[in-house]
Structure formats: structure tokens, C-alpha cells
Amino acid sequence: MKVAILGTGLIGASIGLAARRWLGARVAGHDPDPGALEAATRRGAVEPMSSLEEAAAAADLAFVCAPVAAIPEVAAAALDAGARVVTDTGSVKREVVSLVEGGGGAGRFVGGHPMTGSERSGPAGAAAGLIDGAAWALTPTGRTDPQAAVAVEEAVRRMGAVPVRLSPERHDRLVGLVSHLPQVASTALMATAASSTDEAAMLLAAGGFRDLTRLAASSPELWVEILLANRDAVREAIEAYGDRLRLLGAMVEAGDGKSLSRAFLEAKEARLGLAARPQARLGVAILAVPIPDRPGALAEITAALADRRVNIEDLEIVHSAEGSRGTTHVTVGEGEAEAAIAALAEAGHEAAQLT
Q: Disulfide: which of 280, 291, 305, 332 matches 355 by Cβ 3.0-4.6 Å?
């Protein structure tokens, strides 16, 4: 099986590592940034190709891991180069799918969006475990070849992710609420606190504030592009969030403790039932490390960290959707994350920093 990775950043390189490990694929890669391609090659994620056409030619499956605005052009080029099936990893789908299909890509293109990421960026932070257990949205349309959709779905499942089929419109509406709105809310909260005329405000900012404003440190260029590409869904999400804030404000103004308590309890119950990746408390980092299905694999992981004197603060085993392997979430001190990743790499285990 030949897989092409077109864009070798964090997500592209992680998919490349997972495809090599779990699909047994030959993975060809190309990136317009020579530095990113070189770094992904050093990580063992791809075999470097000098052009997009060379990488995509005769590929059974090509992953377009480019910025949202560039996806239609790159996808079209991959299809023209002879890739049998092409998918992408962009966080906005309606516009992307429409442009690709309108350009003659209907049938062999399947919109996609892995719901995963990391505090780290670029191919240096890539790991096969970044995908394991993650929801992966797929957005085939009535013009998509059913066999192409099944091929992508099967590859995603074999790499350990959980494929979820949605229409492009429904995908954009949902990610507007659970992915794009959090970025806007985090940015607004940070800007509101930073505009305080009392300098002591930032001195009092503790764990809760830091957790809620973490996304405000994200790339402005990246998020401006994403939000504008999904502007209708983002606007609706902001309006709904504003309505909720105004409702809570009215309860506070009226001194309605009973209604406030009920609102807080409903939100708490919803949060406890959320099927999400682990959330780190302040001062720690969570590493996702795939566990091979063989005796002693977990002992190798803990021994590698012990040899570097990295303290394990918590450890959880998460079973893969494939059922034949798992991932361990290892919690270490925030300052020890780099040493832990290096120690695990030396022992033959890839680690992705989730938080």
C-alpha cells in the first residue's frame, strides 16, 4: 500500500507514522517547506519526494494536510497526479468539499478532519499515538464514490481512530460549536482580563484562568483563516454562547441562587459525561504512548522513564478502537516532558504530548 502525505506538519507527520506502523504502508511525503519535509523524514514519518506529483502518483490514499485555503488546489493536484483516493485534514469542510468537487474531484475525494492535536507544533511533535482513539470526521457527499469513502474509513479505523460520518454542513456547524467557539471564547476572556486597568489582575490569574485562556496563545494567522472560512457557523455559535452568558448574568443580577445552582449542576453533569481526551492540571504534561500487543511492553515504558529519573505522576491505559492494542496516557511534570519523550524514543516508543 502506498500512502501520500501532502503537508508534513504535526498532523501530516503523525498520520505518516501511524500509516507506516498500523497500515504497513510505504509513505511518500512532500511539503513546500523543505525544513518541514526534512524534519518529518528524520522522524521516520515519510520518504521525501521532490514534488507533490511524485508523492501522489499511484498512491492508494493521499492525505492533504495543508492550510484550509490551500486544500482545494493541493487535492486537485493530487487527483490529477494519479492518487486513487484523496482525503484532507482541514477543520472546515463545506467550502473545501464544494471547491474540490466543483473542480472535477467528485468521486475520489473524501473530506476528512481528525479531531486531535497537541501543544507541540511541527513534525518534531508528531507521533502515531496522536491519532489513537481520536474521533475522525469524514464528510462524503452524494457525489462521492462509496468505495472511496469506505477505503478512507477503513484506513482511519486501522490507524486507531474512530471514523464519524457527517455531512459537510453538519460538520462545520458542530466544530463551530466545540472547536472554533472555544478559540473565540478563550481569546475574548484573555483580552478582557488583559484590558483591566488594575495590574494585579494578572498576578491573581491561577490555574482555572490559565486553563481557559490556553487557546489564546494559538497562531493568529491560522485561526483567522479558519474562523473566516466557517464564518456562518462561528457567528451562530457566538450568538448562542452570548445568550447563555446573558442568561447567567440575569440570574446573578436577580440573586436567583436556585436557578444558578441548577445551571451549574447541568453543566457539571454534561462535562462529566464528556468523552474527551484527558485534561491536564496545571504544572503537568500528558503523553500518549502506543503500547504494542506483547508481554513487557508497559514495563519497557516505565523502565525507560525510570532510567532518566522522570517521575510518573499518573498512568492510564486507553484501549484502541481496533481492540488489539492500546495507548497509555502518562502524566509527568511539565518540565520533564521533553526528557520523557526523548527517553521513550530511545527505547523505541513514540510519544505525543497531548497537553
A: 280
By the 10 Å C-beta count (0-12 exposed, 13-18 middle, 19+ buried), 27 is classed as buried
Q: How far is CA 144 from CA 153, 194, 234, 240, in A?
A: 13, 48, 27, 33
pLDDT tens series, the chain, 355 aa = 999 999 999 999 999 999 998 999 999 999 999 999 999 999 999 999 999 999 999 999 999 999 999 999 999 999 999 999 999 999 999 999 999 999 887 899 999 999 987 656 789 888 888 887 789 999 999 999 999 999 999 999 999 898 999 999 999 999 999 999 999 999 999 999 999 988 898 888 887 898 889 889 888 888 999 999 999 999 999 999 999 999 999 999 999 999 999 999 999 988 877 654 555 455 678 888 888 777 888 889 999 999 888 888 788 776 554 445 678 888 888 788 889 998 998 888 888 777 6
Q: Which of 290, 350, 297 is nearest to 318 (CA)?
A: 290
Domain ranges (residues) in the chain: 2-166, 171-251, 284-353
The DSSP output letter for 335 is G
Cα 23 off chain centre by: 20
**Distance of alpha carbon 348 from alpha carbon 354, whole angstroms:** 19
CATH class of the domain defined by 2-166: alpha beta
Which of 318, 313, 312 minimizes the C-alpha distance to 278?
A: 318
- The half-sphere exposure of 291 on its side-chain side, counting CA atoms within 13 A, is 26
Q: 263: part of which helix (H) or strand (E)?
A: helix 257-272
This prediction's pTM: 0.76
